[in-house]
Write a structure and sequence with these properties.
single chain; about 400 residues; alpha+beta; Jelly Rolls; 2 domains; 8-stranded antiparallel sheet; 8 helices; 22 strands; about 20% helix; ConA-like_dom_sf; hydrolase
C-alpha cells in the first residue's frame, strides 16, 4: 500500500496488477511505464527528471520500459514471468549449495577422530592434580589432607601402575572426630571433550561417600557432573547434574537408567539435582569391584552430556586401542540433552575430581535407612571399617576432536 501511494504522489497511475507486480503509467508521459515488484522492501522518494526512473535500493526488482503498443506491454509481462522464474531457480540453486555445504561440514565433523590431549596414569598421575585440604563442603566427618601428608601416610600412592587413593584405616578416633582422606582435582580445567576413566576398584561400605565428578568455579554456576557416586552399600550408580537455575532433564531421551529427578538447579537448601539411577549392579560398589571395575566415559559437547558405564568384560575395543568412537557405542547410561539444558551456558571450566568423604549431607542423612549398624559417627571412629575405602585407578584420559 505504501509503495502505491508513493508512486501516485509522483504522477504515476496504476494500470494492472498480477500476483507479484504492479504496472504504472506516467500521467504526463503516457509512453513511459513502470514495473514494480509488490514485495520490494523500501523505496527512495527521488525521481531522475530526464528519464523518469525511480531510484531504489540496490538489487530492488524494478525496470522502466517505453511501450508504443499494448502488444509490447503484454510481451513485457511475459518477459517478467520468465525473469521471475529464472530468479527463483537461481535462489533455489543457492539454497541447494548452502544445504550441501552444511551437510558436508557435518559429515566432516562426524568423520573426525578423537585426539588424546591429556592422560593421567601411573607415577605421573598425581603431578596433574591438586590436593584439596579445606573443610568438606558436604559437611562430612572427613579431614582432607595435603599432598605431602597423603604421601607420608600412604593415602596417595602408586602400586603396580595403579593410583591408590585411600582413607586412613589405622587410626582409632573418638566418635564425632574426622578421619583423614583424600580429595584431588585436575590442575587443568575443561570446557567439553570426551573423558575416559578406567577404574579397577572404588571405595565401599557403610558411612562412605565416594565420588568421581567434575565441577566448575563458583558452584553451582559453573556446573557439576557426577559421573560415579553413591553412599554406603548402594547397589547401582547415580548420575547427577547440578546447575544454576534454568536447566532441566529431558526424560524423553533414551538411556539404560531410570530417571530420579528432572530439576538440575541446585542450591545449599536444595542440592538434589537432576539424576539417573543405573540398573546394572556392576556399576557401583561391591558389584563394580567384583566385576574387576570398568570404564566410565562421558562426552560433553554442544548436544549435551552423555555418560557410559562399561563393565571390565565389556569395554569397547576402540577404548582399549586408544581410539575411542562414541558414535559406535551402545545407548548411554545417562543423557542430559542440550534441548532442556544449554550446556554451553551452565557448564564451563570444570576440573575432574576424585574424593572419599564420610557421613555428611547425604551419607549421614541416609545412614539408618541404609541398614547400617550404630551411628555414622561411631562407624567413622573405627579404622577397621575403612580397609576397602580405596580408589584404584588405571588411568584417566581426555580427548578432543582432532
Amino acid at each position: 500500500m505504501g509503495n502505491n501511494l508513493c508512486l501516485a504522489s509522483r504522477g504515476y497511475k496504476k494500470l494492472a496488477v498480477d500476483h507479484e507486480y504492479s504496472i504504472f503509467v506516467d500521467v504526463d508521459h503516457p509512453s513511459l511505464f513502470l514495473r514494480v515488484q509488490a514485495t520490494a522492501a523500501s523505496w527512495s522518494s527521488s525521481i531522475i527528471p530526464r528519464t523518469g526512473f525511480l531510484q531504489t535500493p540496490q538489487n530492488s526488482p524494478i525496470a522502466m520500459f517505453n511501450l508504443p503498443t499494448v502488444l509490447l506491454f503484454g510481451l513485457s509481462i511475459f518477459s517478467l514471468a520468465n525473469e521471475t522464474a529464472a530468479a527463483g531457480r537461481r535462489t533455489d540453486a543457492r539454497r541447494s549449495r548452502q544445504v550441501a555445504r552444511q551437510a558436508d561440514s557435518k559429515n566432516q565433523g562426524a568423520g573426525k577422530a578423537w585426539k588424546q590431549v591429556d592422560r593421567y596414569e601411573g607415577h605421573d598421575f598425581l603431578a596433574g592434580w591438586d590436593f584439596f585440604n579445606k573443610g568438606d563442603p558436604t559437611h562430612g566427618l572427613v579431614n582432607y589432607v595435603d599432598a605431602e601428608t597423603a604421601q607420608e601416610k600412604h593415602l596417595a600412592k602408586v602400586e603396580d601402575g595403579q593410583v591408590i587413593l585411600a582413607a586412613d584405616d589405622t587410626t582409632v578416633l573418638r566418635s564425632g572426630d574426622k578421619r583423614d582422606s583424600v580429595r584431588i582435582s585436575t590442575k587443568k580445567t575443561y570446557n567439553g571433550g570426551l573423558f575416559i576413566a578406567d577404574i579397577a576398584a572404588m571405595p565401599v561400605g557403610c558411612g562412605i561417600w565416594p565420588a568421581y565428578w567434575s565441577v566448575g568455579p563458583d558452584w553451582p554456576n559453573g556446573g557439576e557432573i557426577d559421573i560415579l557416586e553413591g553412599v554406603h552399600n548402594q547397589d547401582t550408580n547415580q548420575y547427577t547434574l547440578h546447575t544454576a537455575a534454568g536447566c532441566s532433564l529431558n526424560n524423553a531421551v533414551k538411556t539404560t537408567s531410570r530417571v530420579l529427578g528432572t530439576t538440575c538447579a541446585s542450591s545449599g537448601a536444595d542440592n538434589t539435582g537432576c539424576a539417573f539411577r543405573d540398573t546394572d549392579a556392576r556399576s557401583y560398589g561391591h558389584g563394580f569391584n567384583g566385576a574387576g571395575g570398568g570404564v566410565y566415559a562421558h562426552l560433553w559437547d554442544s548436544a549435551g552430556i552423555k555418560i557410559w558405564h562399561f563393565a571390565r568384560s565389556e569395554i569397547p575395543q576402540d577404548i582399549k586401542d586408544g581410539k575411542p568412537d562414541p558414535s559406535k557405542w551402545p545407548t548411554p547410561a545417562a543423557q542430559f540433552a542440550a534441548s532442556s539444558c544449554d550446556v554451553g551456558k551452565y557448564f564451563h571450566d570444570n576440573s575432574l575430581v576424585f574424593d572419599t568423604t564420610f557421613c555428611g549431607d547425604w551419607a549421614g542423612a541416609t545412614y539408618a535407612s541404609a541398614g547400617c549398624p550404630g551411628t555414622c559417627a561411631e562407624r567413622v571412629a573405627d579404622p577397621k571399617n575403612f580397609q576397602d575405602a580405596k580408589w584404584k585407578i588405571n588411568y584417566v584420559a581426555v580427548y578432543q576432536l582432532d
